[in-house]
Amino acid sequence: MPEPKNISILGLGWLGSALAHHFHEQGHVINGSVSSLEKLSRSGQLPFSVSRLSVEKNDIIGDWEAFLFETEVLVITIPPRRTDDVETSYPQKIAQIIQGSPPDLRVIFTSTTGVYGNSGETVDEKTPTEPDKASGRAVRKAEEKLTAHFGENLTILRLAGLIGPDRHPGRFLASKRALRNGLASVNLVHQADCVGMINEVVHQNCWGEILNVCAGQHPIRKDYYQHASKALGLDPPVFKESDEASFKIVDNTLSRVKLGYTYQYDDPTDIFSSKHPGKVSIVGAGPGDKKLLTLKAAEAIRSADVILYDNLVSDEILQLAQTSELHYVGRKYADHSCQKERQSNINEQLHHHYKQGKQVVRLKSGDPYIYGRAAEEARYLAAQNIPFEVVPGISAALAAANLFNIPVTERNKSNALMICTAHTADYSFDQLNGIAALLKAGNALAIYMGLKSLDKLIPKLIEVCHDDLIPISAISNVSRDKECLITSTLKDIREDISRETLSMPVVFLVGAKPIKS
User: Fold this and answer.
1) What Cα–Cα distance (Å) separates residue 235 from each residue in 169, 170, 225, 347, 409?
2) What pTM, to 2 d.p., does this model score?
């Protein structure tokens, strides 16, 4: 692992955010920037520092000096906006960055292959830049200004058209008609390769270079976008019949040779092929406190492209997913909607996002296989030959036992814990008799979803167990702000609860008393 560096990333957008998470996971000290107070307010849960900086034509709003403090590498990932004055406004913004930055600072500038004209030929880094569009001319001027100031401390990465998570090419032109330039070659690069290339520049100290960052394969535009749309089940675009084509072919040889880099998506069709499939993780979110997440669960949430989450997943855990699409698929108490249809919809969403090559997290409260209904989704995924993993979570009963010092198993007292739901009230006599036998032997019982069923459940337990003094604890909102504990006996628990306002979810632990501190 290379020595940690202080890396500042100007612009935590689609690329900058992915880059920040990548470098943070490698142990580098990251300082990122967003352009608005609204974005800043949403970044509070990010695992690295974020500042508000808005680069304007005549000023930088925010503390630029503090942003650069102790920075070893600055990555500039702010693209030009589509405005009428882009040829003047964008270079002016770059000039503001230059004005406040020392020339010996190491800088990576994410430029664009749009600085090359559509010559109909192959272009490399030695090809003269003759942009066809105003945005390309604006970026060329920015390159010139940055080179004049930073010199050999600057590396320019000319990125091709960006594809990847949330930028699936199948959506770019879907359903459009009468499109031109269908016979042109496309120049595209995946987000993973942009991040990978910047990673190599930093770790290999590759400065003073201009490198094209582009997939090595250049499929025909018409074929590519039609196949991409069909892969998502969308109507493919329709192109005009024409022999004319305005294009260029961007050569990535220098980036591969200079850095020894192997493109993950050297063929851009891989984004919708089986060569780079997505990933499905069924993740246990625990009882609610984000500090009780496993490290693997937290990593899966932070790196997810899409999260399908349940009702009891806490807001503080969802806030870890700063760059993910969030889709609520939960079910609340007294929800009488068709559960078969709901589950079918969840299964279809898992399949759909997986086919797009996305990192999909199915996020469940507690543990997926303890009343998390993970089995239904796991069986569906297995039947569809979709690989998946299940990440354990701390179930509410186990969290409650530890947080309130309730020894549900203990040497010479209890050697078993039975987990069941309040539907115990509808169990057969033999089943209730087995549960009662555990309690009579001094073992423990964890009851989920029992708050509304106590009137049926408790009398049956007393009747079968013949002991109304067995201890029982009711714990509401385990590990959350409104956490509440009521300790009682089978005889008195209903009366004790009636004097309190317990909100769901509630878990009951029967057969063990809390250890008083």
Assistant:
1) 13, 9, 11, 23, 59
2) 0.71
